[in-house]
Give the backbone structure.
Amino acid sequence: MNYELKIDVSPVYELLDSFMLYVTRKWISNLDIGPDWVRDIDGRIPPHKRAALLQAAEWPFEDYDILYAWAYTHGPAAKVQLFLDDMESATVEEWFELAAPYLPDFTLEECRRIKDGYGPLLRLWHEQYFRHVESKMLSLLIEDASEKKLLQSKMDPGALIEYASGGVVVEDIPELETIVLLPTVHHRPINTYCFYKKLMLVQYPVDVPVENEDEPPTLLLRMTKALSDPVRLRLLRYVADEPKSLWEMQSDLGQSGDILMHHLMMLRVAGLLRIHLRDEDNERFSIRPDGASELQMFLESYIRL
């Protein structure tokens, strides 16, 4: 693998994550924060400001690829306030030049729409929500990223990506030059990734300390829930020998893509599946061998065997 692996920390990514999740409600039922997080924020933001934010629910989801690219161009440890000020003060042409190397089909018209549309809403989101949680989030992100940076000298880049993400395997992508690992809190426990021309951003969930040691660990609960369904057990057996694509699963197992994706998501967040990436439209799934040993470890630790 010829790519360079970087580990980046910036609250700007977390600002974008939280805004995207609140506005789109994407994956919300599979996340640790859950639907209660949305309801809590709904109750704290004045109705007219909530309505302003939710305008973005109708905008293309692909807009976030541009926003994340802009966050990356601001460099590691970029400040939220600086990012928001730049969105307001810099010209459309300047923002276009930042994104163009990563998005060859990006147009000046799209740039104007995204800059003018999201800039005021991200500032409103920062004022109403993100500034109240930023310092707590940032400390978790810095701590986790520091741990991963220590491992960089001890682990192969591919192994570190799989370890941090709990199963993301980046296969041979000839044009890929840089992969950036980004810790995230709001997206726990899923991974997200953005493909660009020669760059890939991989967000992985941070480890959050257990507050009550008498309660079962969250990962143990995810594992036992994932394994409680016989359909998911059969899926694990099916992908045990070699990676399978979603199309192969639909063909061999006779189930719809939506149903399969639900089960695959449950197994992925439990750390029981690997996802093999060749490009954004080519994903395959295989069993994650470490998942079974982690299940035993967490179970024995919790019941004190």
